[in-house]
Amino acid sequence: MKVSVPKGTRDFSPAEMVKRNFIFKTIREVFEKYGFQPIETPAMEQLETLTGKYGEEGDKLIFKILNSGNYLEAAKVRKHVLKDIGENNFSKLDLVVGDYYPLGFVATPKELLNDISEKALRYDLTVPFARYVVQHQNEISFPFKRYQIQPVWRADKPQKGRYREFFQCDADVIGSDSLLNEVEIVQMIDEVMTKLKINVTIKINNRKLLQGIADYFKITNFTEFVTILDKADKMGVKFIKEELSAKNILHHPETEIFGTLFFEAEQKELKQAVEKNKLNLIRVWSEEVKSEAGMKGIEEMGTVFTLLRSCALQTAACDLDISLARGLNYYTGAIFEVKANGVEMGSICGGGRYDDLTGNFGLPNVSGVGISFGIDRIFDVMNELNLFESLGLPASTTKVMLAHFGATERKYCIGVAAQLRSAGINTEIYPDVTKKISKQFDYANKKQIPFVIVIGADEVNTGDLTLKDMNSGQQSKVKLNEIINLLK
Amino acid sequence: MKVSVPKGTRDFSPAEMVKRNFIFKTIREVFEKYGFQPIETPAMEQLETLTGKYGEEGDKLIFKILNSGNYLEAAKVRKHVLKDIGENNFSKLDLVVGDYYPLGFVATPKELLNDISEKALRYDLTVPFARYVVQHQNEISFPFKRYQIQPVWRADKPQKGRYREFFQCDADVIGSDSLLNEVEIVQMIDEVMTKLKINVTIKINNRKLLQGIADYFKITNFTEFVTILDKADKMGVKFIKEELSAKNILHHPETEIFGTLFFEAEQKELKQAVEKNKLNLIRVWSEEVKSEAGMKGIEEMGTVFTLLRSCALQTAACDLDISLARGLNYYTGAIFEVKANGVEMGSICGGGRYDDLTGNFGLPNVSGVGISFGIDRIFDVMNELNLFESLGLPASTTKVMLAHFGATERKYCIGVAAQLRSAGINTEIYPDVTKKISKQFDYANKKQIPFVIVIGADEVNTGDLTLKDMNSGQQSKVKLNEIINLLK
């Protein structure tokens, strides 16, 4: 018999958990340091809470849960009885329930789906958060700064860096349009990545700047414009240009400047001139066509960069990237994306400002901004760059194992362990009675426990314990209180 | 529009999360202190991994997940075509798929269920753990001490203390039949409950003792005997006695002693005699009928209690309770159950030894023992007894908020916050620019942030900051480094 986990899901071993928990802890501590407070929501949401929020493609990737009980029984409540419809109309029926149901009730596939599933696994943490805010609006004091670290599920095709169950680590401020929030998000990214020793570039843009550009180039379908731009990373520049012109999105003669603004330079001098001050160029354009959005975007980014200059980032580079678009429709202001330098991996963190996330649930016009860390990709990046090793993370949560030569010695271990543990030292007694000390060492070695104390008759009599450092192989006779000082 | 979460599931607010995280942290630290290492498994398991492991009743409570994609399409692969069966045989069909499918394929309800669901949400952590051990047996060095803290899902009828999504905190040792493991489990329970300030009684029994009793009373259906005993708490003693005699489980004339052994005394002197030494009584009985299981049970419990005496428990009482049965069939040795004293609440922790948990998955005869903490009931108990208050738990993860009188002052806050944060103090800057300082105080108050620093023009000029203790209402002018020392 072969046992397995469902496609796209994973088990995590103790060695992996030590690493993952380090990442979680780092992110959690930074979130709390900036005043974000934790919430949790159920894994299941009402199906209607989730559907229609992620676009048509997204809807298909939502994992639905079968109603409990004999879900087929639910079809019994259907009004249509087979005999009322008659066998002649059989071809018109989408789905016919025959003598399985004594009364022969009938349901269409859509009705059947409603009968069999009304709950689903959350697809992200953003929609459940919006639902939470609306549901608990009277208990919340706004601006509400929450963080949430929980798994999400997507029926995506599994591939490198893409899983069907993965964790999101989200922090959002809702009910505040202050740009200080954007600045603190950049600071948090910098702090998390510095602690994890990941060298990153934070790309920042603003949907309003894109709107200004769209206004200047007389692009009317903004959503499609953004959707196409968002594919640049995956599909390449050539595809994007063709797509923009094929879909009649770009009519303006100045395509050359447009291309240079977003992509690689075709004329070197032009590129240099544009790079020098993209914001100025967009300002000129926005003023020319009186684009309110464009002007507002310029102002917002000016404020963000001014505030950012007053708080030196530790290791991250933070660059304006006009070509950054982000796929989600709900973004309305600043947008962020973080890439690890020197690794081939999609973005490991992303987010942005939205003006109406809770509108769907009946609480319109509440502005917010948020960021989401992709723990699984961060884990992969850190493994690839051997960062866990350079952080000196212990391979095991256990600090010391007590080995013994027999039942009497093992009983003695209980008292020794109690003292070690009450000093906060994670201690394991080898549980079985066995004379084979090498077997016990082997066990400690495989579990990567860094220290072993050996208890024999001598040790029981004298209280001088034998301590072995499993890394260096060094062995010495030491009193318990010295061991405690050493290991604490 | 009314938004809600699915029945039996809950949101957790920041204030609740602080409490819950304290419980999780306490349990996690104790597990690690005793050498247990963390693993995690996916929320979804293959349906076949779970079915048949929890009895017929349990199977019905497993939440199944609809296959992704257009699951109805899957029925298309079915071989049976409607026209081959013919309309005359219509009444024999369980389920007929009509012109919804162009080719008119047909499936029985069972086939349909297979087509639409092959994954399910985990029902407990024990079966996924058994699956994990078998799947990763070549990477594991036994005895394997793992802990696992994750949510589980059950389609149970929600009621007080019973949810459809709840967390389990499990620790198991597998691949060791040492009774030291039983002893350490009792120690861990004592340590967790002492840290949480919950006064508990740990009831301990051994399935082998029950087998000895069954042998003496010539009870042949042991499983049914245990199942009936397990209902004593819920159904009362009278019901149990009637049930035992109605099902012909108890024929022996000495029913009186039997009743006294398990339940309340009907003759006072007899009860006292029995209470005095239950183990001796069972030893005598077991010897009389030569019950191997009974004798082994006596020996095991003797060892456990001898070892337990050598490690003084901190606050928990640990009593032999012959009437403790536990419902699950896989237990074969020691069994545990923990009740909080002074509260009406089911057991908050339970576990036991099993000899063949992994046999289902092809790895037979591996003995193990484990314990599971019910975090949600522990949370309810602690709330009911106001234990969070007496533990002095902070209501908020944020320590201090910076209030300000305008944009210049807010900008000054960024530097102040950076210094507080780098000293490890969780700090929030009120994000919006507003002259209304009372609004900012109100916000800090509602979020139960214990300290507020007020930054006005004066503070920016002199560096003397105004610190307000939100609990006492006291306000004072202090330098930042003094504030850091005070709050650290």
Description:
The structure is a homodimer of 488-residue chains. By secondary structure, chain A is α+β, with helices and mostly antiparallel strands. The first copy, chain A, is 41% helix and 19% strand. An 8-stranded mixed sheet of chain A has the order 1-6-7-12-11-10-8-9. The first copy, chain A, has a 5-stranded mixed sheet with strand order 14-13-15-16-17, sandwiched between helices. Chain A has a 3-stranded antiparallel sheet with strand order 2-5-3. In chain A, α1 crosses α16 (375-384) and α8 crosses α14. The longest helix of chain A has 20 residues, at 14-33. Chain A is elongated. Mean pLDDT of chain A is 86; it is low at 70-111. β4 (95-97) of chain A pairs antiparallel with β4 (95-97) of chain B.
Name the chain pair with the biggest interface and residue counts per chain: A-B, 107 and 107 residues
* H/I helix tally of chain A: 21
* Alpha carbon gyration radius of chain A: 30 Å
Helix content of chain A: 40-55%
Number of strands of chain A: 17
Average pLDDT confidence of chain A is 86
Largest sheet of chain A: 8 strands, mixed
> What general form of chain A does the structure show?
elongated
Strand order of the largest sheet of chain A: 1-6-7-12-11-10-8-9
Helix vs. strand class of chain A: alpha+beta
Q: What ranges of chain A have pLDDT less than 50 throughout 5 or more consecutive residues?
A: 70-111
What's the short story on this structure?
Two copies of one chain form a homodimer. The first copy, chain A, has 488 residues and is α+β, with helices and mostly antiparallel strands. Helix content of chain A is 41%, strand content 19%.
